[in-house]
Amino acid sequence: MDMALSERSGLGNADNHAPDITRLNTGGLNTGAPLAIEAIGLVKRFEGTTAVDGVDLAVPQGAIYGILGPNGAGKTTTLRMLLGIIDPDAGVRRVLGHDRPHDIARMIGYLPEERGLYPSMKAYEAIGFLGALRGLPLAEGKRRGRELLEKHDLGHAADRQIRQLSKGMAQTVQLLGTLVHQPRLVVLDEPFSGLDAINQGKLERMIRDLAADGTTVIFSTHVIAHAERLCEGVAIIAGGKVPYAGSVDEARDRIPAQVRLETQAHEGRWRDALPADARREGDFWMFSLPESGIEPLLRALIEGEAGILSLSIERAGLHDAFVHIAGEAAARALEEDKLAETVR
Amino acid sequence: MNARENGNSGPIENARLSLWQAAYIIARRDFQAVLFSKAFLFFLLGPIFFLGISGGAGMLGAKAAERSQDPTMAVALDASESAAFVAAHGQLEQLTRMPEIFVPATSGLSADAGTDAGTGAGSGAKMDPQALLEDADRNVAAVLTGSLAAPRLIGPDERIESWKGPVALIAATARGDTGSYPAVSLEPTASSVASKRSSNAAIATGSLTLLFLLTMLLAGMVLSNLVEEKGNKIIEVLAAAIPMDAVFLGKLFAMLAISFVGIAVWGGLGGAVLALGAGAIGPLPEPAVGWPVFCALFLVYFAMAYLLIGSIFLAIGSLAPTVRDVQTLSMPATILQLAVFFLATFAVNDIGSPIETLAVIFPLSSPYAMLGRAAQQAALWPHVLAIGYQVLATGILVKMGAALFRSRVMKSGPQGVKSGRKWWSRKPAA
């Protein structure tokens, strides 16, 4: 990171003007790998409203990284700032080691949330044109366009105009146009939206293939299942802030595992050994795994003659973690608003 | 998909397209899209209407030029007959409208024009009628020679035909024999100062009307092209890949190239019509700088006028999310363009006046005013200066337009339509 970045971020080291990258939470991801994206304190305001409020991100090269958040959380604005489509009001960003994303446009592929192609262009021409925008010679882009369409079972549509294609086909064409110039970083904004289950599966395979080839893939989504299946790291955005950024495993570990217990006896001394959050759900007791682990509880249940019929420990899913984290953030934001109001 | 397995070459090197390379990609796409669209056919048909309107405007300009300085008849009879003719003209003008006359100094009468010129005896020296017709200080439309008994009228065909009757009447009155009108012999010439002025004014007004209509059409096309692009949501793809300045410049120059194709087609067709029908049409009036230079200047001034107004319209387009908003926002620019056109039209009839100088200096009207000047004045050096000045002004305006475009284009979009909020109150959604 250069001096300007250090000074602007306010994170510079007095000796070498290097930023304090340790502030960036890679959350157990491969921190040894160089970062594809570094963002520190990104802020974007629109006419008085803060859409993005101090976002920090660190995405290692070669990772599949998800940006999760509800609609209106600030995902698209964050991606637009990372790509240089809009400039942040505060904070700094570096993409593949460069301060200005446009300087490395040839190394980036971007699929915006609002898909856009020229309706009168033929499919292979559209791919060629998108490649040309990223520096690929037009003729080469068109040639690759035909190849990619063939490879993705759309060869029959190569000479059809975009307006003649189904929405899913047009979306695939645009995705291929995003990849035709062989970018090192691929940014996909809500790539699964509008695709049927089969095409969603194909897209997941594509993303895995890209990552296997060393390409960094970042995508935003509000469908957690895709991120859970694909991503090594995620950032959760809510209300323009990032309450969590790190590995998927670490996010899931934010919620204690849930214990599901079925006993023969309904009453007895053993009840005293159950944690305070234990609740009855049908024939089962549900509670968080105690910090002391399962063994002391098991001992108490046996000694208390509970008559264990079944016991399972279920790790929290990313969805539960998301609700837990995004909910906490919302509560914290509310408290902050209340406090600010009180101060005024 | 493994992207790097496609194609023969490896990953693209770390770099980006230059501003002009990126602009070329946008321009090439827009150029091809418009060229092979149905809209281009309408664009090619447009000038049929334009030429009609421009022709009408040209005729109005010619009339205005005639009204601004009445065409005059030079009376080149011998001194005594000239005096009698002037006196008879004076008498008859009390009764009805007669052509303006003047008696050249060498005839012995006062050099002042008009019927009040006096009746002094002249030397009777012979004068060259063609020299009188080309006298730039006088708006001479025809020359009367011969005698009162056998008057001879020299000048452009249409003019001498219309003045034949009044000349016969005045000559008969001058001879004191109103019962017999002398036969007026006619000697047509190619042109006169008056007809040249009139035709030059027609060329000036007609050409700047054509210029105005073309730039209006193109500015409208470039604007709707941009709005359509925002509607198609392509603008974000472009903004992510290349600088917005390149999008702005690409769109601007694509439409300029389209217009040059149109002009080449129209010019070719017009040239063919003129070549095939030259005999039937007769000689064309020539602008002051000559047709080849005038055509070259037309192209240059057209490019300048279009780039100036096009950059304003594109900047407006960047602010507006929908066609409806564009119409509202472009209204002031359209009014400005109309004002500029009227200023230039007014100025071409008064070359050298302060208003014409203003029209030449004001960047938006400068191309129009200078084109009007090219039709009426032969000097070329003012055009060299004006083109230099206009290139500078165009550069500044294009840069300002591009800056506004860059800062605004991604802040307005279809989200505003969905939310039902206007662009000026919208908060872009994430």
Which secondary structure elements does this structure contain, and how are they paired or packed?
The complex is a heterodimer of chains A (344) and B (430).
Chain A: H1 3-9, E1 35-46, E2 49-60, E3 64-68, H2 75-83, E4 90-95, E5 108-111, H3 123-133, H4 138-151, H5 167-179, E6 185-189, H6 197-212, E7 216-221, H7 224-230, E8 233-238, E9 241-247, H8 248-252, E10 258-263, E11 279-281, E12 284-288, H9 295-303, E13 308-314, H10 318-343
Helix pairs in contact in A: 3-4, 3-5
Chain B: H1 19-35, H2 38-68, E1 72-75, H3 79-95, E2 100-102, H4 129-133, E3 140-146, E4 151-156, H5 157-175, E5 185-189, H6 193-232, H7 235-241, H8 244-276, H9 278-281, H10 291-319, H11 323-348, H12 354-361, H13 366-376, H14 381-408, H15 415-419
Parallel strand pairs in B: 1-2, 1-3, 4-5
Antiparallel strand pairs in B: 3-4
Helix pairs in contact in B: 1-8, 2-6, 3-5, 6-8, 6-10, 6-11, 6-13, 8-10, 8-14, 10-11, 10-13, 10-14, 11-12, 11-13, 12-13, 13-14
Summarize the structure in words.
The complex is a heterodimer of chains A (344) and B (430). By secondary structure, chain A is of the alpha/beta class. Chain A folds into 2 domains: 3-121 and 176-247, 3-Layer(aba) Sandwich (Rossmann fold), CATH 3.40.50.300; 258-314, no CATH class. Chain A contains 10 helices and 13 strands. Chain A has helices at residues 3-9, 75-83, 123-133, 138-151, 167-179, 197-212, 224-230, 248-252, 295-303, 318-343, and strands at 35-46, 49-60, 64-68, 90-95, 108-111, 185-189, 216-221, 233-238, 241-247, 258-263, 279-281, 284-288, 308-314. Chain A has a 6-stranded mixed β-sheet, sandwiched between helices. In chain A, helix 3 (123-133) packs across helix 4. The longest helix of chain A is centred in the last third of the chain and has 26 residues, at 318-343. Chain A is elongated. The two termini of chain A are 39 Å apart. Chain B has 430 residues and is mainly alpha-helical. Chain B has 2 domains: 17-64 and 195-414, no CATH class; 72-191, no CATH class. Chain B is built from 15 helices and 5 strands. Chain B has helices at 19-35, 38-68, 79-95, 129-133, 157-175, 193-232, 235-241, 244-276, 278-281, 291-319, 323-348, 354-361, 366-376, 381-408, 415-419, and strands at 72-75, 100-102, 140-146, 151-156, 185-189. In chain B, helix 5 (157-175) links the parallel strand 4 (151-156) and strand 5. In chain B, helix 6 (193-232) runs antiparallel to helix 13 (366-376), helix 11 (323-348) packs antiparallel against helix 12 and helix 12 crosses helix 13.
